[in-house]
């Protein structure tokens, strides 16, 4: 009885989502509708509803444990790997529900490239790292592989640094280079969306700046969803920002507005550093 | 911002805590206060000393001594063992001098001094000694020293070794003319050369030059080898084909019955072929007889120290050397020639002499076959357990069972191997595929295949445990990276997880290999025999014969050390064979470790 009462109290505590994102001319790419998510008995996401706009950068911010990574990982169903999860509501990419039994999770993940917090290049050559998504598709055509490798490395602003040592082990690269390599790998399968889970948190400021430049370039071709703890970064790179708190989407809107003139007190408390 | 977080959270927790819980919070507080109080006592404002200097226990000094001592003890035991084996193994083949001992009663003993010890003579032995020696022994508190001589000439003396008590010895000489002669049969002969008969030439012992002797002996060895090669290779081949023909005939009989036309045709063919083959056989026999007749002309007459003579064909001698008249160079020559024989020849004299090639072959072959079986089996099992099976009670039980399997006594595996592999599967195979050979079993008895399968079963827990550890050590980020690229679970395992786990898996295989190669007990039941000159690998199709029984170095050690006519004679061989077995296992491990390190180098992070 007591716990029930607190839940209701908490529910009542949260305001309705403030919703004022920039709309892309190309429409939305991901429609998240009333999405709930549980790890075992613990609910991690509560009725998240938002439309992620095509070819814009969307930043997810919020204090630790607010569910932003969970939401990001739900988009390419990486959470499927965890035992005892449960979900409710829909996520649609270009109108297709990703949980539809007819959707192959492998195909889905090819449409959403993902970059992780810690650079995770495979212990192989740089070349093999970049073309890994093609290799798993069974592509053997050497010319196609080489072309893809060069194109994606150029897109990831890494080509000039590694073009003469493509056969070297990728683990020999510096942290920032490794992360750009992971970005190159993520875009090698020609996805529409790139998911970035705190891509700069393990990097120094210079490497971070390069990645941010890169995000600005990649935005021309890809829709990007980025989770970040760094508010300045969110302000610099994103067009829209979603602020999450305890699994709820508190405010989703144009980045400028969120940072200059947020609609909710909780948002302004967080971005001004009053809590979190 | 981050530093603020924990504090903020704590506040929130406290704020959320309902009032009754405040009590429980209080329960926690007293210990907190006391520790604070103690700390306050210990470190008064302006601390005077470091804590480590105050607290002996904190430094953990005694534990460091215990840990270091345990390590030192372990290392010492291993070094002691290795030095013992190495030294005894290395010196065994070095030719020693032959001493002629003249006892006070006029008797003479000629032999290689084997070892000396001090002993306590029994009253009867004392009676046999002269009064002077008796007094000397009594003065030495009843102790006397004695030396064991390897006197050889088993056919003459009926013993290999003889003790000489120091007090009985009148004099010890090393006559230059005495020879140490290793024979094909009856062990070594120690004595003098009385005469040499080379075809029509007769040379008396004093005139024999070493060069003549050695060249005549080399020729005799060539003749012996020629005979042996005809017997083993050519006659062996004929026997093999006759047997094959007989089996083909028997097969037709089983398939069509004795009265059928097919059988009659086959029988005719068989008789014709056998006749041809018998003719070939006769030719070879004649060839052998001719060589033997030639061989008869080269003889040597030997005389032992007591004067008794022995006639031998030169070809019956394996190796001979003048033990006391040998340069260092000559000794080294004998040393390496013995090692050569040991490593490349068949055993003779009930395994106490000669080589161990079949045993080396059997050991290596069986271990490699075992690895071939255990590696995929163990790795696949571990993959399922770790990657696919839903982790829960059932998997935990399976895991505990697998770990416990490693504790089952190996002889039990031997019994299982015999009962299941040989007597159940093997007998079925025989019935299905080799009915013509029955009642002689082919796979229905112990053999190389069953032995390696048994050992694979014995070592599979090691591989499973090691592989599971290696798999779980592959970072999650790697798997996620691969899955996010659109790889399936299997592709991720094959391309990312397995290559990274490979060094760990190899470690497991190395452990399994070392355990398997050193195992003896189960092998005695499933295919290892005392003598199997037929290697499991030969020139007859299908070249590898996994159904054959084989020799094994571990069993060889047991057999020579504890099952032979004279354990004293076998002792040096035990050490040499042990040294060899350890060396082979070390070599195989070194090879595997080399591969592992090469794999591991690929995954070393070059991040800085």
Shape of chain A: globular
In the sheet with the most strands of chain A, the strands line up as: 1-11-10-4-9-8-7
Structural class by secondary-structure content of chain B: alpha+beta
Indicate the multimeric state: heterodimer
Write down the Rg of chain A.
Answer: 19 Å
- Average pLDDT reading of chain A: 86
Distance between the termini of chain B: 28 Å
Helix count of chain B, per DSSP?
20
Share of helical residues of chain A: 25-40%
| Proportion of residues in extended strands of chain B | 5-15%
First-to-last CA distance of chain A:
30 Å
Name the pair of protein chains with the most residues at their interface, and give those residue counts.
Answer: A-B, 40 and 31 residues
List the SSEs and their pairings.
The complex is a heterodimer of chains A (276) and B (608).
Chain A: H1 2-13, E1 18-20, E2 28-39, E3 42-53, E4 57-61, H2 68-75, E5 85-93, E6 96-97, H3 105-111, E7 112-115, H4 126-136, H5 142-155, H6 159-162, H7 175-188, E8 193-197, H8 205-218, E9 223-227, H9 231-237, E10 240-245, E11 248-254, H10 255-260, H11 265-271
Chain B: H1 4-16, H2 21-42, H3 51-54, H4 56-59, H5 61-91, E1 99-103, E2 108-119, H6 123-127, H7 131-139, E3 144-150, H8 154-157, E4 161-165, E5 169-173, E6 179-183, E7 188-198, E8 201-204, H9 210-256, H10 261-296, E9 298-303, E10 309-313, E11 317-322, H11 328-344, E12 347-348, E13 353-354, H12 357-388, H13 393-405, H14 410-433, H15 448-472, H16 476-484, H17 489-517, H18 521-525, H19 553-562, H20 567-603
Antiparallel strand pairs in B: 1-2, 1-5, 2-3, 3-4, 6-7, 6-11, 7-8, 7-9, 9-10, 12-13
């Amino acid at each position: 009885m007591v716990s029930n009462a607190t839940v209701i109290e908490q529910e009542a505590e949260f305001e309705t989502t403030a919703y004022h994102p920039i709309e892309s001319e190309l429409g939305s790419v991901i429609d998240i509708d009333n999405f709930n998510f549980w790890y075992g008995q613990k609910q991690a996401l509560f009725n998240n509803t938002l439309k992620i706009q095509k070819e814009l950068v969307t930043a997810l911010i919020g204090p630790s444990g607010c569910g932003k990574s969970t939401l990001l990982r739900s988009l390419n169903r990486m959470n499927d790997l965890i035992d005892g999860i449960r979900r409710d509501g829909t996520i649609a990419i270009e109108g297709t529900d990703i949980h539809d039994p007819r959707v192959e999770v492998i195909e889905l993940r090819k449409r959403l490239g993902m970059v992780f917090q810690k650079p995770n290049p495979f212990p192989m050559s740089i070349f093999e790292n970049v073309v890994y998504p093609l290799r798993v598709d069974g592509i053997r055509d050497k010319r196609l592989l080489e072309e893809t490798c060069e194109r994606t490395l150029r897109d990831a602003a890494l080509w000039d640094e590694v073009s003469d040592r493509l056969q070297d082990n990728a683990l020999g690269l510096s942290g920032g280079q490794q992360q750009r390599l992971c970005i190159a790998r993520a875009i090698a399968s020609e996805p529409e969306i790139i998911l970035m889970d705190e891509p700069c948190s393990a990097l120094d400021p210079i490497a971070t700046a390069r990645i941010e430049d890169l995000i600005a370039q990649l935005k021309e071709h890809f829709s990007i969803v980025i989770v970040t703890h760094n508010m300045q970064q969110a302000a610099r790179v994103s067009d829209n920002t979603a602020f999450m708190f305890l699994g709820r989407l508190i405010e989703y809107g144009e980045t400028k507005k969120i940072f200059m003139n947020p609609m909710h007190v909780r948002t302004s408390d967080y971005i001004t550093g009053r809590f979190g | 911002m981050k530093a603020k977080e924990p504090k903020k959270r704590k506040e929130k927790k406290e704020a959320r805590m309902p009032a009754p819980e405040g009590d429980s919070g209080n329960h926690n507080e007293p210990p907190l206060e006391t520790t604070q109080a103690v700390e306050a006592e210990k470190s008064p404002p302006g601390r005077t000393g470091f804590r480590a200097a105050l607290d002996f226990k904190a430094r953990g000094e005694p534990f460091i001594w215990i840990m270091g001592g345990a390590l030192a003890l372990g290392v010492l035991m291993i070094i002691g063992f290795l030095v013992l084996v190495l030294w005894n193994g290395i010196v065994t083949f070095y030719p020693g001098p032959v001493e002629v001992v003249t006892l006070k009663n006029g008797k003479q003993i000629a032999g290689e001094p084997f070892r000396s010890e001090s002993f306590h003579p029994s009253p009867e032995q004392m009676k046999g000694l002269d009064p002077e020696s008796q007094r000397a022994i009594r003065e030495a508190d009843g102790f006397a020293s004695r030396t064991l001589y390897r006197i050889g000439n088993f056919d003459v003396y009926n013993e290999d070794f003889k003790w000489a008590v120091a007090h009985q010895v009148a004099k010890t000489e090393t006559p230059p003319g005495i020879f140490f002669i290793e024979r094909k049969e009856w062990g070594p002969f120690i004595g003098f050369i009385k005469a040499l008969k080379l075809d029509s030439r007769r040379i008396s012992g004093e005139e024999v030059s070493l060069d003549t002797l050695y060249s005549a002996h080399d020729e005799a060895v060539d003749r012996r080898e020629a005979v042996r090669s005809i017997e083993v290779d050519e006659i062996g081949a004929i026997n093999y084909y006759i047997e094959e023909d007989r089996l083909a005939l028997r097969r037709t009989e089983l398939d069509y019955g004795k009265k059928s036309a097919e059988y009659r045709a086959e029988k005719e063919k068989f008789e014709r072929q056998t006749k041809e083959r018998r003719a070939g056989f006769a030719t070879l026999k004649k060839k052998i007889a001719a060589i033997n007749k030639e061989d008869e002309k080269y003889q040597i007459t030997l005389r032992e120290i007591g004067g008794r003579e022995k006639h031998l064909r030169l070809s019956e001698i394996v190796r001979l050397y003048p033990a006391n008249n040998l340069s260092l160079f000559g000794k080294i020559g004998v040393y390496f020639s013995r090692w050569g024989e040991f490593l490349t020849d068949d055993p003779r004299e009930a395994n106490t002499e000669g080589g161990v090639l079949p045993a080396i072959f059997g050991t290596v072959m069986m271990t490699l076959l075992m690895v071939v079986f255990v590696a995929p089996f163990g790795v696949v099992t571990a993959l399922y357990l770790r990657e696919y099976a839903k982790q829960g009670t059932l998997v935990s039980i399976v895991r505990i069972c697998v770990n416990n399997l490693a504790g089952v006594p190996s002889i039990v595996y031997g019994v299982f191997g015999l009962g299941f592999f040989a007597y159940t599967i093997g007998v079925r195979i025989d019935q299905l595929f080799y009915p013509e050979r029955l009642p002689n079993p082919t796979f229905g008895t112990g053999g190389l295949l069953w032995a390696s399968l048994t050992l694979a079963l014995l070592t599979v827990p090691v591989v499973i445990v090691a592989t599971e550890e290696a798999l779980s050590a592959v970072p999650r980020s790697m798997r996620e990276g691969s899955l996010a690229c659109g790889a399936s679970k299997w592709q991720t395992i094959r391309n990312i997880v397995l290559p990274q786990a490979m060094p760990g898996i190899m470690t497991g295989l190395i452990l399994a290999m070392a355990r398997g190669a050193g195992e003896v007990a189960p092998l005695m039941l499933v295919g290892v025999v005392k003598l199997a000159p037929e290697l499991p690998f030969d020139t007859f199709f299908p070249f590898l014969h996994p159904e054959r029984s084989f020799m094994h170095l571990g069993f060889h050690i047991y057999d020579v050390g504890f099952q032979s006519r004279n354990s004293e004679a076998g002792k040096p061989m035990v050490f040499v064979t042990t040294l060899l077995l350890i060396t082979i296992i070390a070599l195989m491990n070194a090879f595997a470790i080399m591969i592992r390190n090469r794999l591991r180098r690929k995954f070393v992070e070059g991040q800085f």
